[in-house]
Amino acid sequence: MKEKVLKVNESPYRVLSLFTGCGGLDLGFEEAGAETIVAVDNDFEACKTLRHNRPEWNIFEGDIRDYNPAVRDVDIVIGGPPCQGFSSAGKGDPSDPRNFLWREYMRVVERVKPRAMVLENVSALTHKKNGDHLTGIMTALEAQGYNFTYGVLNAADFGVPQARRRLVVIGLREGVPTMPEPTHAGRHVTVRQALADLDGNFDEEFSHMPPKHAPHVAARWAELDPGETDPNYRRARLDPDKPSTTIRAGGGYGPKGDHLAGFHPPIHPWQPRQLTVREAARLQSFPDDWAFKGSKTAQGRQVGNAVPVKLGEAIGRHVVGMLRAQDAEKSDREQTA
Ligand SMILES: C[S@@+](CC[C@H](N)C(=O)[O-])C[C@H]1O[C@@H](n2cnc3c(N)ncnc32)[C@H](O)[C@@H]1O
């Protein structure tokens, strides 16, 4: 009898990416065997970053509310709607119009009917005060015939040198989805492992220039213990032997509730200064050849907003794996029939 050969789809799965930012989630999915067909974002500096790194991607630079998808045969819709209104790092204004952009995500899903969807957001979306939004997402998925699951993943459990907890919703049109299992539980990558080789080597093009601080600030930071927070700056000096604290997009809020403009990353573990954009990108597991465009503030925002690439890759491998298994099963059935 002739041996039966299972035909497994080896070509990349087609991704429509919403709220793409500088492409952390997309890059992870690319590593996992998917390719971005269209990327949508309204931040011109983030779009500059995308065009620089992936000139072949089709980028819709504008408000998602004006985006009418013409693309066909989308396998996976991915995206992380803005989270400033939900984030426990921000003030969490419930009437912030950005809180409702998940509806735009679901509108696009309804139009393109992908086989799978992945929605990422801050873990605060699971908090009671934001419950209506999560319920809204689940209701919309149910109405569109998706089976779904969701959970909070810690990026550190997936090889990212950073503690970053994110809500991930995974939906499938066929079959019952599961969540990815941690790959690095109990063996986290540390800040030292991620940053040690970057000492010196400063280079503007590489987004790696040491910030200049007033001498009294540098003196104060030099006295901080690893993991200790500076009460004025409200950021910790990183502990070199642990994963980093969460890298944030904006400045957050100062001691008097005032908004801190600009890039306000954690304090370097063994130098009395802030991290550079490149160091923050390393802690987000971006590869060194991924360039960031725009002002330093814009670059910091892009990096802090991103899904860590290695977390994106783990989610991508899991989702691509579920689709490949479905394709292999289908091919098997066709051969048997
Ligand atoms: C949390 S970030 C996404 C980060 C991205 N997933 C990554 O891994 O790099 C949210 C993105 O949504 C974009 N955005 C916010 N409002 C938008 C809108 N109305 N239309 C399109 N994009 C929007 C922001 O510019 C930002 O880049």
Keywords:
single chain; 337 residues; alpha/beta; Rossmann fold; two-stranded antiparallel sheet; 9 helices; 30% helix; disordered N terminus
| Spatial gap, N to C terminus | 16 Å
Q: Main sheet: which strands, in order across?
A: 3-2-1-4-5-7-6
Largest sheet: 7 strands, mixed
Percent of residues in beta strands?
Answer: 5-15%
Mean pLDDT level:
91
Task: Give the CATH level 1 class of the domain at 13-181 and 304-332.
Answer: Alpha Beta
Residue share in helices? 25-40%
The assembly state of the depicted protein chains is single chain
What would the CATH topology of the domain at 13-181 and 304-332 be? Answer: Rossmann fold
The string of secondary-structure elements, in order, is EHEHEEHEHEEHHEEHHH
**Structure ligands:** S-adenosylmethionine
List the total number of helices.
9
**Uncertain residue ranges:** 1-7
Q: Total strand count, please?
A: 9
The outline comes out as globular
> Structural class given helices, strands, pairing?
alpha/beta
Task: Kindly provide the radius of gyration, computed on alpha-carbon positions and rounded to a whole number of angstroms.
Answer: 21 Å
